[in-house]
Amino acid sequence: QVQLIESGGGLVQAGDSLRLSCAASGQTFAMGWFRQAPGKEREFVAALAGSKGATYYADSVKGRFTISRDNAGNTVHLQMNSLKLEDTAIYFCVARSPGGTYYPSSEKQYAYWGQGTQVTVSS
């Protein structure tokens, strides 16, 4: 069982930056982030997978968000720049163990979920 601990959420103004972090208690194959805005379905944001650290992004965050991990591979970071009002959401860290075909944007891929951290972007 892998536990995920998120940190870094908060209240910022549009155009600002924020960095989320997620620490896993064990080894994983892939880690990433989903988000859920009020009244909307949960959606994929970004993921990083494998030994080579392949990265995947939702179109809505490409060019603004960057996912990375530390050398040990147990912590991922989501650097969020040029934040927009529509980025306001609860951000959930996710993780997946090795095995099977990997579809980064599918919720079903991830057995481990964090509790979520609130990101609020104000005008």
Give a description of the structure:
- The chain is mostly beta strands and 123 residues long.
- It has no helices and eleven strands.
- The strands form two sheets. Strands 2, 4, 5, 6, 9, 10 and 11 form a seven-stranded mixed sheet that branches. The chain has a four-stranded antiparallel sheet with strand order 1-3-8-7, with no helix packed on it.
- Strand 4 and strand 5 form a beta hairpin.
- It is globular.
- 33% of the residues are buried.
Number of strands: 11
Q: Low-confidence parts, pLDDT < 50 over ≥5 residues? A: none
Mean pLDDT: 96
Share of residues in strands: over 45%
User: What is the succession of H and E elements?
Assistant: EEEEEEEEEEE
Give the helix tally. 0
Alpha-beta classification: mainly beta
Overall, the morphology is: globular
Q: How far apart lie the N and C ends?
A: 40 Å
Q: Quick one: biggest sheet?
A: 7 strands, mixed
Helix content: under 10%
| Rg, Å, rounded | 13 Å
Top keywords for this entry?
globular, 7-stranded mixed beta sheet, 123 residues, mainly beta
Characterize this entry briefly:
By secondary structure, the protein is an all-beta fold.
Write the layout of secondary structure elements.
Elements: E1 4-7, E2 10-13, E3 18-24, E4 30-36, E5 43-49, E6 54-57, E7 65-69, E8 75-80, E9 89-96, E10 112-113, E11 117-122
Parallel strand pairs: 2-11
Antiparallel strand pairs: 1-3, 3-8, 4-5, 4-9, 5-6, 7-8, 9-10, 9-11
